[in-house]
């Protein structure tokens, strides 16, 4: 790969990022078409997953696509779905070379797109900025290979890891800049999820505020018995979808109430000691096409997800305030007796946000 290849692929990855949170169940793909060193077409997957990035870029390039080089962040699709395959569109446009960041693990594609292109006489090269592409596609790859979405756990806490005072006061530990960043992050995920305890304590809207996203994230609340406040949630079904995950013990009256309001209900198995099976929760979300989920607690629910090994990324907003051991811990008990048994993550980002610190960690 040349320096120009990496430069144009980097541009395609930047375009792909625009689709995060907007395109599920499809992957967020970016495409750049270059002829004689000049960009003649750009595209990224549109809200709802269509049109695909390659189709958008080809439409912009027009006749200039003939003999051009195409940079795409994921192997062009090879199967007929609601739209014809992008590999066939590239062939019909007469492109000379396709550089893709990675092969698509979806069984409907899985090398088939590259094979079609090569069979048509188009030069194909793969692996350009593959690590960066895999990081961007972590959610889609998780859904395809693990049958569940990528899960990021967000905590806004004091320096000593507390999310509220001893009396439960939590608004606001972090500053306005950090809270604004959280809303921007929500918009890059397919869903925002909390446990029933957080829903009861805060009656949160879980919507994106300060700006209007192209596609509102699904709001997911995990509550075994559907013992939920209704004031804000019930009055906001027109703002964003609401999915409620509950167990067999949820009263029929509660199920009917939320269903009639327009919420979608998921009846899932409960654990013997109480609470829903976290694996069942994540698999149900994956089965519905979600690729990226932004979890905002609470403590017990976060502990259950972490103990089950389902947390892929930690996103922390830490404030320079001390609340002491009588404050409320960000994560509930996990029963960790030995350090070797504790989930570990590697640091990937540290940024100052106003008066607070943002730090992101990923599990290997």
Automatic annotation (TrEMBL):
GO molecular function, one term: zinc ion binding
Residues forming the catalytic site: 54
Cofactor section: Zn(2+)
Free-text comment on the cofactor: Binds 1 zinc ion.
UniProt keyword terms in alphabetical order: Hydrolase, Metal-binding, Multifunctional enzyme, NADP, Oxidoreductase, Riboflavin biosynthesis, Zinc
Function recorded in the entry: Converts 2,5-diamino-6-(ribosylamino)-4(3h)-pyrimidinone 5'-phosphate into 5-amino-6-(ribosylamino)-2,4(1h,3h)-pyrimidinedione 5'-phosphate.
Family: In the N-terminal section; belongs to the cytidine and deoxycytidylate deaminase family. In the C-terminal section; belongs to the HTP reductase family.
Name of the molecule in the record: Riboflavin biosynthesis protein RibD
Phylogenetic classification of the source organism: Bacteria, Pseudomonadati, Pseudomonadota, Alphaproteobacteria, Rhodobacterales
């Amino acid at each position: 790969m040349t320096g120009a290849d990496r430069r144009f692929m980097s541009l395609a990855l930047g375009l792909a990022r625009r689709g995060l949170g907007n395109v599920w169940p499809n992957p967020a793909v970016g495409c750049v078409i270059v002829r004689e060193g000049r960009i003649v077409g750009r595209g990224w997957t549109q809200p709802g997953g269509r049109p695909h990035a390659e189709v958008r870029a080809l439409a912009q390039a027009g006749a200039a696509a003939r003999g051009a080089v195409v940079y795409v962040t994921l192997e062009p699709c090879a199967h007929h779905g609601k739209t014809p395959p992008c590999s066939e569109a590239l062939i019909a446009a007469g492109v000379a070379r396709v550089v893709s960041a990675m092969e698509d693990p979806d069984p409907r594609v899985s090398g088939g797109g590259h094979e079609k292109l090569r069979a048509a006489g188009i030069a194909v090269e793969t692996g350009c900025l593959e690590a960066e592409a895999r990081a961007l596609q972590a959610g889609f790859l998780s859904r395809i290979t693990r049958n569940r979405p990528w899960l990021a756990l967000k905590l806004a806490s004091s320096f000593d890891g507390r999310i509220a005072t001893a009396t439960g006061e939590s608004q606001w530990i972090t500053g306005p800049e950090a809270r604004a960043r959280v809303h921007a992050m929500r918009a890059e995920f397919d869903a925002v999820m909390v446990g029933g305890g957080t829903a009861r304590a805060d009656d949160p809207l879980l919507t994106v505020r300060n700006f209007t996203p192209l596609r509102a994230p699904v709001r997911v609340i995990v509550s075994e018995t559907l013992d939920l406040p209704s004031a804000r949630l019930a009055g906001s079904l027109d703002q964003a979808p609401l999915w409620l995950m509950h167990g067999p013990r949820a009263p029929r009256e509660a199920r009917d109430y939320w269903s009639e309001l327009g919420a979608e209900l998921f009846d899932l198995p409960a654990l013997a000691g109480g609470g829903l099976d976290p694996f069942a929760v994540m698999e149900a979300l994956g089965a519905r096409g979600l690729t990226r989920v932004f979890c905002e607690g609470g403590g017990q629910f976060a502990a259950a997800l972490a103990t089950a090994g389902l947390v892929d990324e930690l996103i922390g907003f830490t404030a320079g305030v001390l609340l002491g051991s009588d404050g409320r811990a960000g994560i509930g008990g996990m029963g960790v007796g030995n350090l070797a048994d504790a989930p570990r993550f590697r640091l990937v980002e540290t940024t100052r946000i106003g008066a607070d610190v943002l730090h992101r960690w990923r599990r290997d």
